[in-house]
Amino acid sequence: MGSSAPGVAGDRTASINGGGATVIDKGVDFANYFCTYAFLYHQKEMLSDRVRMDAYYNAIFENKHHFRGKAVLDVGTGSGILAIWSAQAGARKVYAVEATKMSEHARELVKANNLQDVVEVIEGSMEDITLPEKVDVIISEWMGYFLLRESMFDSVISARDRWLKPTGVMYPSHARMWMAPIRSGLVDQKKSDYEGSMNDWLCFVNETKNYYGVDMSVLTKPFSEEQRKYYLQTSLWNNLHPHQVVGTAAIIKEIDCLTATVDDICEVRSNFSSSILIENTRLCGFGGWFDVHFRGRSDNPAQKEIELTTAPSIDSSTHWGQQVCITEHRKFFCISSCEPVIEQTFINIFKLNFCSFFSFFFSFF
Prior knowledge:
With 365 residues, this protein is of the alpha/beta class. The chain folds into 2 domains: 14-182 and 240-364, Rossmann fold (3-Layer(aba) Sandwich); 186-232. Helices cover 28% and strands 34% of the residues. The chain is built from 9 helices and 16 strands. It has helices spanning 30-37, 40-47, 50-61, 81-88, 102-112, 153-163, 186-212, 220-232, 262-266, and strands spanning 14-16, 22-24, 71-75, 93-98, 119-123, 135-139, 164-171, 174-182, 236-238, 250-256, 267-276, 281-297, 300-309, 322-333, 341-352, 355-364. The two termini are 43 Å apart. One of its GO terms (cellular component) is nucleus. This is Protein arginine N-methyltransferase PRMT10. Keywords: Methyltransferase, S-adenosyl-L-methionine, Transferase.
């Protein structure tokens, strides 16, 4: 994964104006986000992710018919690895777009692998660059944490709408977001962090009044709400063990990369159910992960469909891990395996300045 434009999904301020179109601030925290991808240490972390690498490698080389003799666009090429593989699979031309100075390393890597006549590395924003032709394939590792957090799918959509041929193929072609009830020690940790923050605030209020004669207590409630959102309603990265998942997983969002719009990914709303499967357990929150699929398209399918999943795993974890959303009020379940408890949940996910805020409404039966 590299960078292609300032309009990444995690890098947005989104709002709905009277039910109208979504407003996206493409200037939010540009430097902080994109500077990360300009460093080789960050690229190395992603290139060392075997699940990620194997999925893309197999998707390309098991489906060479999509690449042989074709024009390919790599959105956010980063180190250039996907562009190089596309060329090795027989692409006629590969346009590798990268917004950061990582493009210089990508260009060197392409040359070192004797592919400079096929792969053209272009430094610039995907939204701003112009290609000399439409392409047959758009490939990108655009996925962020929990798929959309800090992702750059906005740029992929822009590239698709401008440069993909009507018969073109998206790599990956489909994506899904999953959630499942979990148990985790993060709940106690984050509650303790929140309580510590409030204790620190109360000390601050007392000291300000005693030393400077100003009563700040009127701000205690809004400060508490702010800290509650930060500690208890913001998703957290975690590498969950499968045993921490205490119920069935549910799909909360499906994306067809060939047809999805920016509005489709600005907000995720879902009603879902999950059966609690473990006796005498506590529901501490929800774990979220994603998978993507390389299926081609209905009229030009993949010869071999490949899946990349970030689900909790004992031996196949990824750098994406999972996102954990804790519940403030834990629920204790004492059930038999033949009588699962069904928990109806409404989840609302907003992405704002690299944070994802979750609102939950539960009813237990």
